[in-house]
Design brief:
Blueprint: H1 3-9, H2 19-26, E1 39-50, E2 56-66, E3 73-82, E4 85-95, E5 101-103, E6 108-113, E7 116-124, E8 131-140, E9 152-159, E10 166-173, E11 179-180, E12 190-193, E13 199-205, E14 218-224, H3 229-240, H4 248-258, H5 264-275, E15 277-278, H6 295-301, E16 303-304, H7 306-319, E17 325-329, E18 349-355, E19 362-365, E20 385-389, E21 394-398, E22 408-417, E23 423-431, H8 434-446, H9 449-458, E24 463-464, E25 470-471, E26 481-489, E27 499-502, E28 523-524, E29 530-540, E30 544-545, E31 555-559, E32 562-571, E33 574-583, E34 587-588, H10 593-608, E35 611-616
Amino acid sequence: MSPALLLCWLVTASTSLPPEVENLIDAAPQPGQRPDTAVTWLFHGREVVVEANGVVTRREHGLLYVLREGPASYHVDLGYFGADQSVTVTRAVLRLPEGQRYDLSGYFSQHNQGDVVQCALSFPAQRPGAAFDFEAVVKDDPQRPSAAGGFEDRFRALDGAPVEKCRYTLFAPGSLLVKDNDPADFGPRIDSAVPRQAIRKYEFETPDRPADRPPPTWSTILVTTRRDWNEVAAHYRALAAASYDQHKALSAAVARETQGKADAARALYNYVVSRIRYDLGPLERGAPSVVPHSATETFDLGRGDCKDSATLLIEMLRLAGITAWPALLSDLDGPEVNEKVPMLAQFNHLVVAVPQPDGRGYRWFDTTWSFGPCECLPPVIQGRRALVVREGDGQWRTLGRSTAADSRIVRSGDVTLAADGALSAQMKVQWTGWPEQQLRDRFSRNGTKWFVTALERARPLLDLAPNKAVLSKADDLDQPLTLAFAVTRAEAVERERETSLDLRAVAPPEPYPTDLDAPEGPIQLREAPEEEETDLRFHFAPNWQLNKEDVPRTVSKAAAFGEWSVTYSLHGDTLDYVRRVTVTRAELGREQAMALRLWWRGLVAADDAARVIVHARGAAARVAGP
């Protein structure tokens, strides 16, 4: 950015910086000492004061230093705040390498996110040596203190960019018992009494390190005064108590949806996930608002976040006489919950737990999984730990994991090679598990045209009849999700001579992993364990002959992460082709890349060999191997 443009962009009122900030800038590392980043935090800190009445004041301070040219602008996320909190930027100064200073406090932004406001600061790209120093103060409304029943704080101290120095300080009444997660990359917590006050000071600080030693980039400090998880459960129970309500329309919907249904819990879950639109809410964003909207409001609006739709389902289940509880967890988008630090702020998701009839465990329902089958949980929460908020306590349980048999894609069809060499097929695809959820959601919004278009692109020689594609009712979760369609291919083989016929040409293509050659990171095979099957029966007109020796041999391969097989069965003028692939693990470590590559290459070779030689009767026969 040119100096003229820079001056136009900035607020040009000069401002001073504290001496300690100037000293940090003077001692900043050289670019060669931090080769993997464009910026580094010279300092990042938070100071929190908890008053005896529960009013919390938080001061956030950061000093970001530019090492080399990077993005067009830099964004500092201050976090999400509720309506009962005020946010004031007390300092936002850009210091250029030549020493000029500019006030950027006018570039403080607030974005309404429903129940909460997201606050941030920004500054434009700068030359190496520039620094951005800011300070923001967040304070509770004195009439509505956030820590009246207990204090919790989650400080993402190291969040991607290196941090040269970090400090977290808490001042709290001495009567409170403060627990923490013993955060990595920080020295031991230092506790001390504040002279002449009934207050204690708790401080975490990163130790000094040589300038040539890379600083840490990821760490979170968890601090709480909650005694145990029962207290956390009681806190959420109190917050959500008023949200469980009903009216005539809601009660009527429960009666209607459960009438004649053997599994009322499943029926009500199906109702919610097919009619309540999921909106990303503050809990998923890590914001402080965890109070759900009322069940009737969510029912009337037809939309809500995880806690809103879960509250609605819980109320509907209870109206049907079924015990149901909210269950708090952190999905795969967030870190695992540290069970040694009881605090509500660790959770970013909420599901519904229904006790099993025998009292051993729970049925789990995730109401954000639009059109998802209740028998299979979303992959992002499988295996995670959840806190079930029961009537009198909180109970930790582990969510189940699906098997490959729970998520299946079955492609089947009858294929006919006519006397004139044309190929025609009546095809059907059926989905269960997580593929079913993805397809139901997409079919419900876009119909079948996109599927037909994708198949035409993958199989350009086929002629499809879009108007003959028949889809089962996408929003009827009681019925299997199936799509039936017809395809043809004129002159698939030449009438008067032998021709190679591709057996897979009429079926939708099967996916292969795309990141086998990536240099690092886990290998994502599927969203979850999965089975795929392609089952085709070929019928040949009397003028076509298929010799046994022209049929490829059956092949298979098994490994620790799955197995595949391709089989052929010839019965007179009928050939059965069956391809099965089972992936038992959704993700593999990079160290298994070679074994996986060989496994997939074997399957690709088997797919390439899925051809037969068909002979026009009377033509000279020729033996052809696979």
